[in-house]
Amino acid sequence: MGIETALLDLAAKAKGVTFVDLLGRRRLVTAPVPPVMRHRDPSKIDEYFQKRVRGAKTPLRLVGGEDITEDLEHFQLVATARRAIRPSAAAQPIWFNFRGKLAFDSARHIVEEVAHLAAGGKLPSQIVLQNLLARHDLERSAELQSVADSLAQRVAGSSGVTILPRSAGPSDTADMLGSEEGTLRMLNIRPAELGGILRSIEIAENFKKISPEGQIVVSQFPGASRVTQMVHRDLAKALPNARFVGASAEVERKFRGTRRLSRLRRSPLLRQGTGLALDYQALVSQARGRILHPSIPSDATPGLEPNTYDDVDYISPIGAYAVHGHIVEREALARGLNSWRFTKSSIMVSDTAGVQLPFRTTRWPLSGVVASSVAKHKESTRILLRRAGCPVPEGRTFHGGDHEISLSYARRIGYPVVLKPAEGSMGVGVTANIGSDSELTEALRMFSRTAHGNDEFIVEKHINGGDYRIMVIGDEVAAAVQRIPANVVGDGVQTVGQLMIEKNVARRQNSHLGPLKIKWDASVAYQLGKQGYTIDSVIPAGQRIYLLSTNNLTQGGESVEILDELHPSIKEASVRAVKAVPGMGYCGVDFLLEDHTKPLDEQDGAICEINAMAALPVAEYPVYGTPRRLSEQFILRCVEAFGLESWPERAETLNLRLTIHGGVTGVGYGKWFTRRASKSGLSGWFRNTGERQAEALVSGPTAAATAMATVAILGPPKAAPESVKSVHTSELPELDEFVLFDEDSDDRGGVAFEPGANTDLSDFEESDSSVEETSTEPEQLSDLQEIDDLLSPEELEDRLEEQNDGK
Asked: Angle formed by the axes of helices 323-334 and 702-711, to 10°?
């Protein structure tokens, strides 16, 4: 429900209206559910009514115990005391909560007895029997109401008993409303249980059609957050026939919003959305967990089937750019080495003898800093490659702002040309296949708006053909990937924008490319415009259109691994290009080729640049083709070059002891770690070992265990881990689950949480904690977080009643 609340709140703020006005306001105020009178002692009951405000005419609520006979006697005692002490309130209804523990026959007997007691004047004529039926008989609630209505007609003096069934899910609620045995006159709607706010409105509308005079009660789980209470109060103002709401009125009376919010904007009628500063970011992980991934269209790349990856759920929290460092750490640990991680991209790998090797992203000990710097500057690279006899496109470098000179140069070498920054990466500022002065002028204008706008840039001859990344480790080509520009294939129905969204969602099935989406920007609009389309155009079925002229995967491009098809002459040229830069041990060679299966001298091909930090995941997680475990070769080369002691075979399961330093105690880090480890199917334990230190035993599949070692450097929002050391251990966990020790020391840090929608709790029980409205921190929207040590429904219900008895 939190995700839906966030989206509706954003929509209301965008329209400049209140949350309830977005839903469709039907009333200005709603009544809270009647107060509970919990006393059983006769003197306490008398004292309760004597303290009530004279003339108050509000219903009253009672809660049953274990014995039905005693409950009915208590019912009569309260009714008698109220009639004697507060006669003006004697005619008001009394609600009696039987806590959902009766079978249908027992409940029917109670209805009959209550009807006769009301007819005899011992109970008020208007009675609400709440939570009478047990869940297994809940669908017969309408039938029970029919029994009560029949008694009202037959028994003189009994004007009616109303059955208020407990809250239920969509299926049970539909069964109750669709019953042919009777019609409900009162319905309990709990949005978190029904499936959300809009679903609740739909069910309420249906109830009104079935029972035009019926009353609706909006309830919530015990301990509901301020956000939930505010939303429920607004929802009750929008539902048809909503009579009561379980949220405390204090939540609105004490509403303050943020300090920058004007006094007028704090009004329930004028504030925008819910009026609260909601923490939308906290819902991102929940939203991702509920996304349905459409398959990549079968005609995206004819003849090829898209790859799927088993580790996508483990890797997704790490982020696309941190995957580079993770897979290096994964293979190091899989070969028996230990790791010490400092950031998402920086790790130290060591063996049992103490030999240490540093890694940062894909920089490694066999490549020098000078070599990496040379490769970063494209003009320097062009000079070295030309000297080594490698094919390179004709071109030159220009100072920032030399647009007129670059236009003259483009005319001299002939269009089409490519514009790109002299130093850059990830395709930023690159425009390919520029065919005229006007197109180059527009490309230069867009380039000036990028981060490289004032830097040197290159204009070079455009080479017709596909874009390939050839990965070279040492003297060997380890992988080869063809990169295809971001594109969509029309279906004759959806617009370009819709096809882009579909493509982006489908990419989430790829462990590396999921976060690297096609983005709508000036470059995409420009490329579409050249083809005569806009974002709202509907593309004919089967027609492919390209959204960018560059092939960069970080901008939505697709990858096809083609090493087995790559011609030997292209491999040889790639190795020669890497050797042309002194000190280069690993590199990605970007080749432009007409056909990767033909000899290089039989086609128009050229190396446009080399990349000293070529992303390993490009070959490990291609969209199509054979995945290459490049990171394993990467680690094995290091082991061989520096004499590290490693395992001869790759381990498929690991037992790791993690030592985490930094701000990880008292901020909920342990609960976060335990939740992630359990979700990944790992076993082991977590415990705090000092003021700024914790340790964990992680046991399970290599992919899951090593991902946990990487993601441990992140932690929940309030944590600040500084390092994570992962070493192999022979210790095995005693249980096949993940356990959190010293849970009391792992405070959540004040983050609000609520019972889940599958708990079976008493309806309308107010929160025990007072509402504090002075905080300016973003509100937590999580209605679906777990409760640790969850009690049974009966135990939790009793606990709530016992706590409130003392008030």
From this structure: 130
- How far apart are alpha carbons 446 and 735 in whole angstroms? 59
> Residue 416 corresponds to which tokens in the numbers above?
């089409």
Instruction: State both tokens at 409.
Output: 């140069």
* Tokens read off for 255: 């509403």
> Residue 616 carries which DSSP code?
T
Dump pLDDT digits (tens) for 219-268.
877 666 777 888 888 899 999 988 888 765 454 555 444 444 444 444 55
- State which H helix or E strand residue 236 sits in: helix 226-238
- Total number of residues shown for the chain: 807
Token pair of 460 as six digits: 């070079």
Residue 687 pairs in a beta bridge with 695
Burial class of residue 498, CB neighbours in 10 A (0-12, 13-18, 19+):
middle
Which 8-state DSSP code applies to residue 704? H
CB 456 within 8 A of CB 398: yes
Cα-Cα end-to-end distance for the chain: 31
Q: Give which of 129, 611, 83, 634 is closest to 357, Cα–Cα.
A: 634
Decide: pTM greater than 0.70: no
DSSP 493: S
Q: With a cut of 50, list the residues of the chain below it in pLDDT.
A: 249, 251, 255-266, 299, 748-807
Helix (H) or strand (E) holding 609: strand 606-611
Select from 680, 685, 681 the least CA-distant residue to 735. Answer: 685
d(CA 252, CA 306): 52
Give the count of alpha carbons within 13 A of 713, CB side only. 24
β-strand partners of 96: 62, 129
Instruction: Output the CA–CA distances (angstroms, integers) from residue 202 to 371, 403, 741, 783, in the order listed.
Output: 65, 61, 45, 20
For helices 669-679 and 702-711, the axis angle rounded to 10 degrees is 160
574 phi/psi in degrees, rounded to 5: -70, -45
Give DSSP secondary structure letters for 399-457: -TT-HHHHHHHHHHH-SSEEEEESB--TTTT-EEEE-SHHHHHHHHHHHTTSTTTTS-E
Contact of 660 with 721, CB cutoff 8 Å: yes
CA distances from 460 to 104, 288, 604 (A): 84, 42, 15
Strands 476-484 and 738-740: unpaired
In one-letter notation, the amino acid at residue 327 is I
pLDDT of residue 439: 92
Distance from chain centroid for Cα 493: 29
Of the candidates 328, 297, 338, the residue with the CA atom closest to the CA atom of residue 620: 328
